[in-house]
Design brief:
Length: about 270
């Protein structure tokens, strides 16, 4: 009886050792946790490829580039990766464990991505609201200027300033002169009127070009005097000359005293 028991346990032990050896990951192969990370990265690469607008001509090159990046990250060649995959597929129990870990990793990455997207959206919304609150420009965002216009083609403006938080003011807009325009010189001009009855006049010579060009001007960053009013012309020029031009994306906003990032004044022309 005792011999039978010993033989039975010997057989069980032998089968257990065979099973352990059968499921033992070969030397040099990634273990379950590492292989799960590799497969998760491969899935991420495939998802990225599927979301890209890739022309049929460049598809193979782009796909190979993504897979090469993933394999290089884990110090694997394509041949070694294929060998590892084949070995795990021949051991279904281990492969199932690995794939369960892959699903958990992808779920964690997706949740993290959603959190980051949410934070980014919240930051964009805060920036939009802050920018809107700092805006002092109440006119149109865009103007088309033509010689036949009956309005003042210099586009004059007057802004009463009552913001006590302002450190200074920044103006920017895109200018473009159109065909048939004969203007030789045009100036963005801003006059700052201070509480002590003094004033400053700042000018920016607008390039006479058909290209859409950004003009920027900063006011009040180099003085402690309080500005009460800002006035001037978006496009001061000789109104006897023929003009056709566009002004787009006008922004005029103040920078808070408490704002640690203050714009650097551009060289004024």
């Amino acid at each position: 009886m005792i011999k039978k028991i010993i033989v039975f346990f010997a057989i069980v032990l032998g089968l257990s050792l065979v099973a352990c050896n059968f499921n033992k990951v070969p030397k040099g192969f990634p273990k379950k946790e590492e292989f799960a990370k590799i497969l998760a990265d491969v899935h991420q690469a495939e998802a990225t490829i599927n979301h890209l607008s890739i022309t049929e001509r460049g598809l193979d090159t782009t796909v190979n580039s993504y897979y090469h990046h993933v394999l290089a990250k884990h110090n694997l060649t394509q041949q070694k990766f294929d060998t590892v995959v084949s070995w795990y597929l021949s051991h279904p129990a281990l492969y199932q464990e690995v794939y369960d870990k892959v699903i958990a990793l992808l779920a964690e990455q997706e949740a993290q991505s959603e959190r980051e997207i949410k934070l980014l959206d919240e930051e964009k919304e805060r920036f939009r609201k802050d920018k809107l609150a700092r805006n002092i420009w109440k006119g149109d965002k865009s103007y088309f200027i033509n010689t036949t216009d009956t309005i003042d083609r210099r586009i004059p403006f007057i802004i009463e300033v009552d913001t006590i938080e302002a450190q200074g003011y920044s103006f920017s807009a895109f200018y473009q002169f159109l065909k048939e325009s004969k203007v030789k010189e045009s100036i963005l001009q801003v006059i700052a009127l201070y509480a002590d009855s003094t004033m400053d006049t700042l000018s920016y010579n607008l390039p006479i070009t058909h290209n859409n060009t950004k003009a920027e001007l900063v006011i009040g960053f180099d003085t402690d005097k309080k500005i009460l009013k800002l006035e001037g012309f978006l496009m001061n020029h000789d109104t006897l000359e023929q003009i056709r031009a566009r002004i787009n994306d006008i922004e005029f906003e103040y920078t808070s005293v408490s704002d640690s990032l203050q714009p650097i004044p551009m060289e004024e022309l």
